[in-house]
Amino acid sequence: MRRAAMWGALLLWTAGCGEEAPGVPFAPPRAGGATTIDDRSSLAFMQPANNLLPENDRPHREGDAAFAAIFVPAPSRINPGLGPTFNNDSCNNCHLRNGRGLPVMGHNIQRTQLLVRVSLPHGTPDHPRGAVPVPGLGFQVQDRATVGVAPEASLSLSWVEHAGQYPDGASYTLRSPRVRITPTDGSALPPDMLMSLRLPPPVFGLGLLEAVPVETLRSLEDPDDRNSDGISGRMNEVWDVATRTLVPGRFGWKANSPTLVQQSAEAYFNDMGLTTPLFPEADGTFEVSADVLQDAVFYSQSLGVPARTFLDDPTVQRGEKLFSKLGCEACHRETLETGAHPVAEVSWQRIHPYTDMLLHDMGPELADGRPDGAATGTEWRTPPLWGLGLTQTVLPYSGFLHDGRARTIEEAILWHGGEALPARDGFRALSADERGAVLRFLGSL
Amino acid sequence: MKRMSLPLRLAFAPALLSGALFLGGCGDDAEPCCESPDSKVNSELIITFADQVVVPTYAKLATRMTELDAACKALATAPSAEKLNAAKQAWQAARVPWEQSEGFLFGPVAGGYDPAMDSWPLNLVDLQKVLNNGDVLTPEYMGNLENSQKGFHTVEFLIFGDGGTKTVGQITPREFDYLLATATELKRVATVVHTLWIQPSDGNPPFRDTLATAGKAGNTAYPSVHAAAQEIVTGIVEILDEVANGKIAVPFDSGDPNEVESQFAYNSLSDFTNNIRSVENVYLGHLQGETKKGTSLQDVVGVGSALDVKIRGQIAASVTALAAIPEPFRESINDAASADEIQTAQTAIRTLLETFQGEVQPLLTK
């Protein structure tokens, strides 16, 4: 990182119109560096990186096929191994068009893309920073099963509405989820069970985030808020299955996965009931080969990041300034730089993900109360904001935040608490026009 | 088809060209996206697409799924060879609007309804388990089954058998139960998708309005007309890539008949042809047999222009090339005598794809 964290924003970089030198206009910021693609359609999260090397075209396509592959129970000639219990049957059936899922639940024709993670607050985990499984449910409620097998539980979701009002009198409504878990075997749930609802996040740009040097992220940490700006920020510490050591966490809503290969293997195992070399069967065999796992990983590493739009729109420019002025940029860091990475396309790029990859206390209203690695029940990892405005282009009716509770970007802002409370209150205090400008800026990402 | 489109290298936008999509230079222009008065890339283009192509296609799908459901009920009530034949024809008729909708697989259908109707390969293991168990097939029970043991291809499997060899006497009572439950769910899904385009739902506007109001204040899905126009052409590019490089290429390259969709009914090539028709409908701005009622991509290109003539010629060439491949496609993929025809069709479709990518997409950028 070449710029000091204390100086806040790299505003100059994206001020839109200006000059780098006399007569030389600024190059527009390219969200994903050389991987950036110019596509604002519903397929914007499904394009290969703009700088994809010719020799990687085939691996990328194989990864695309791996991501789309629908698994079925064994024996089958094609994609066997699903289940016996699971949440879904393909990567793309949760990450719809590589984006988020829908915040719906239950056994309807749309299928559930929301997951429920569970654990117990006390007990002995089987590795450091691990969670304690819930008898009969483990760490994740698998509410689907192959025919003849009972799913672990059935899930239902309802929403509770909360009316709110801006200082200027404008009203809004927020909603929060209520999940009901009904174990299939009729057993009672432990009264102290911890539960966290999770919506699948988009899968593009992950290779770039993996390529940000850990030193950079460490330099952004301020766990004890020594600079007294009200923002802490720290990396999660999680169990690396391959090395059997504790390492920094990067991926997932709580940064509870250290690498894309582990996160992908966890998804195969937890979401689809598929074993991999990282999470094998008891006898050491596995249903998804190392090659296919690697294909899926490479796909997520080699997707393009959609370019920002409306760079020259004065409203967007105004919203961008307000975003910074409100302090949003303290966590949603506009610019990071990647370092060396096995995937050449994502190495040494200047990117604009709007994240610091760190955990922050987001307050009681957003809290799930379920620790994950070193993350507490109130901490969440700053999610990247690139491509944010395409969310409902890619998937109409999708939601924002970790559980999809926010139906709009505006609602997502209004849920911010804890360290983000001053920024949220600042947003609430803006005029309707100014709020609109902030939202238009976020929609242009 | 649930197999997602293969990615495309949209190489028409040089990285440093800040104007690649809607990014103008710096200036005093207060309008983020503006329609020049003579531009054919306007709201009418989007509205025509929605009202003259998408909505009628989904309406037809809902109708034909209803007819398929009725044909299956009639067959189950009084099984006969004639009724089985009618059910088969109803299935094939329902495939037409579905495949003709695959040139615009965005919007509500992307929210899980596509795989609910059209997952492939079939999960024959679980399908067989249900045929063998005595469970009552309530709508709730069906809701718990995977998409890969329901939908179009399950109905196809049950009434056609392998290569259409199934006779009415071979359909067991349990298969009738499963067929009815599946057909009823298909009707429900198709109706929901059509409804989501034309009616408000859960506090959301009809998706037709979401598209038609592209560029209007507050439209977060399509903040400019050009974004919606790009969506339309991207849908075309996606399906052409999928047909040439997915639906045809995957089984042709692997030689694996299991990869061939709609193989029980020998309907694969009809599927592919209707995908090309989907592109044609979108391009012309109306369904086959209907009259043109507004601006379409053809107007953006210029009716009668050299490019228009080229595109229409390439669409026709793609359809002709597909017609030259013998069914069953699942056998043709391994028949040396058909290899030339298959490659010719792939080339024709790829040529059309390149035309849309190279010459139509740039017309929609600013």
UniProtKB/TrEMBL annotation, chain B:
Leader sequence range is 1-23
Q: Which residues form the Imelysin-like domain?
A: 55-354
Family matches, as InterPro entries: Imelysin-like, Imelysin-like_IrpA, Imelysin_sf
Q: Where in the cell is it found?
A: Cell envelope
Q: A single Pfam family, by name? A: Peptidase_M75
- Keyword entries, A-Z: Signal
Instruction: Output the Gene Ontology cellular-component terms.
Output: cell envelope
What's the protein name?
Imelysin-like domain-containing protein
Q: Which organism is it from?
A: Myxococcus stipitatus (strain DSM 14675 / JCM 12634 / Mx s8)
